[in-house]
Write a structure and sequence with these properties.
HIT family, subunit A; five-stranded antiparallel sheet; 29% helix
Length: 146
Amino acid sequence: MTNCVLCKDELKPEDGQLIWRGDDCRVMLVNDPDLPGFCRVILNRHVAEMTDLTHGEREHLMALVFAVEEAMRYVMHPDKVNIAALGNMVPHIHWHVIPRFNDDAFFPGSIWSKKTQETKEAVLEARRKKAQELPAAIKAAIAKLS
């Protein structure tokens, strides 16, 4: 599918940072100023629904999602981690793995809802600094899968 934004391989700085890439999936650190540490686990080929994957592909994809969550909890110490796969706007399998904090801009709603509060800039900056540790932690968690 040529117009799918997740099928495109070229990355712009505003898209985020590629943390890890395997033959079938990749992990991105999303560039979201309100949600430092937000990651996506993206299937490399264009598939819209999880049930279009084999059982082995599903298990591998979810193992990656859980490895990202595990690393995120270790590094970011969030109050909660949200894991979501919507695909309404981009019908390409991808999972959002989002560290949530009681003081984040959208809490207690979803990150796609209206902001409910402003997070102090010093707090966001500290979280951005912590998020810089995520790539190494995620790679280590994925390495443990093999």
